[in-house]
Amino acid sequence: MMSMTFGISSSVTLLFDFWDVHGPAGMVLSVFVVLLLTVFYELLKVWRVWLGRSSKLAHPQSPYSAPLPYRTDSSSVLESSPSESSLTPMASHPPALNTRNSLLLHGIQTLLHMLQVSLGYMLMLCVMSYNTWIFLGVVVGSVLGYFISFPLLGHI
User: Which ranges constitute the DSSP H helices of the chain?
Assistant: First the structure.
């Protein structure tokens, strides 16, 4: 039975039977690979945010959107609330290439989401090997990935 406590060892099996680590050199290489996967995971999150913000999918404009109420001190609540006439459809744009591009972008975002979730679960399973070195590789990779990708969020 597998031990459910963290241990320091240079012998561990990660994710698949063929990723069987024996010795310090294999452990250093495995920690480096896990660290790079975690950095990629953090960069993938920023990439998905960038795609979401650069597309119109992030802020879809509904044809039934109500205008923002304009209220002064002397107006009443009834005067500032949207009426039935403000809920009528606004001028709609004919679906042309925009629909095709949005479907392509949505497909790309879906694939990136699938990759992010799969990678996240694989990293979780690496941590669940209860090897201290692998755990530290995931933590340091997450810190390094966030440190690299955080400035990118400001430019998006």
Answer: 24-54, 77-80, 97-127, 132-155
What is the SS3 assignment for 92?
A: coil
- pLDDT tens digit sequence for 51-66: 887 775 444 555 555 5
* CA 16 to mean position of chain CA atoms: 25
Q: Residue 130 is which amino acid?
A: Y
> CA-CA distance, 156 to 12, in Å (whole number)?
40
What is the C-alpha separation between 104 and 87, in angstroms, rounded?
Answer: 30
Distance CA 136, CA 32 (A): 10
Q: Are 108 and 116 in contact (CB under 8 A)?
A: no
Question: pTM here?
Answer: 0.68
> Beta strand pairing status for 20-22 and 11-13?
antiparallel
Summarize the confidence of residues 99-123 as an average pLDDT: 90
The encoded tokens of residue 143 equal 């810190």
Q: What is the pLDDT of residues 60-88, one digit of tens each?
A: 555 555 555 555 555 555 555 555 555 55
pLDDT at site 156: 65
One-letter amino acid at 141 equals G
